[in-house]
From TrEMBL:
GO molecular function: transferase activity, transferring alkyl or aryl (other than methyl) groups
Record Pfam families: UbiA (PF01040)
Compartments in which it is found: Membrane
Signal recorded as keyword: no
InterPro entries hit by this protein: Prenyltransferase, UbiA_prenyltransferase, UbiA_sf
Name recorded for this polypeptide: Prenyltransferase, UbiA family
Keyword Plastid: no
Topological type in the membrane: Multi-pass membrane protein
Stored NCBIfam families: PRK12324.1-4
Transmembrane segment boundaries: 12-30, 36-55, 75-102, 108-127, 132-152, 158-176, 203-222, 228-252, 273-291
Organism: Prevotella corporis
Keyword set, alphabetical order: Cell membrane, Membrane, Transferase, Transmembrane, Transmembrane helix
GO biological process, one term: glycolipid biosynthetic process
Amino acid sequence: MINLCRLIRPKQWIKNTVVLLPIFFGGALLRVEALYAGFITALSFSFISSSIYCLNDIIDLKDDRRHPVKCQRPLASGAISVVQGFIIMASMVILAMITLFLLPDNQMKTAGVIFFYWVLNIAYCLFLKQHAIIDVCVIAFGFVLRIISGGLATGIGLSKWIVLMTFLLMLFLSFAKRRDDVLRMNETGHAPRKNTSRYNLTFINQAITITASVTLVCYIMYTMSPEVIANFHTSNLYLTSVFVLLGLLRYIQISVVDKKSGDPTKVILNDRFIQLIVLGFGLTFLIIIYFL
């Protein structure tokens, strides 16, 4: 059971809460049916993501066995065989599709987006991840597909702002993660990924700075856009920009100073400062749209 959990990575399921963003930014947190549909979709995405983790570990088996940390993964260590890995992968896909039958509306459209995500990530595991820049763009686009599926499942229309902000933020986090790979390559002389040699610290640092800056500007424009002000009946959302700035700065600090940006999920789960920033952002946003 322990090896199964390590293979399907349930801790990584926190990423799929992105599916709930349309509910949050759509002001639908008090709609029980929207929360239910969002939860079901996030669960389906969690299962489909786990199937991709299985495939990724199967494909990277030889490289993982040479890696100082990844050699402990269930497949690389031999705790789970390749055949068992494929069976678990198929089981996760079946669970993902079965879960979608619990959706009250737009089952087929939501399933179509999730299936496209699955195919895209298979392509990523097989060859797209070998190409620098393309690899991080595919990862970021995967999160865009998550919010699209959340919007379809809940019946909440997506604004161009939420799509753009999601892509930019995830691009920022992906570059920060690649920075960890570059540091390891510089220390050991061995590239953790085939495309790591196409990155260096100068490029990564500039990419992180650019994506963080554009993300912040995009969020400020979102809070001050006429459509958002009209939708929430308030012009005070710009105040939450402070939390976005603090969050970006803190993550840059973790990446550049602490050199611990290799696993964004672990950072979010363990860093109290970022957790307080997220909590402060969420509470402030909700107070402004529901009580002011």
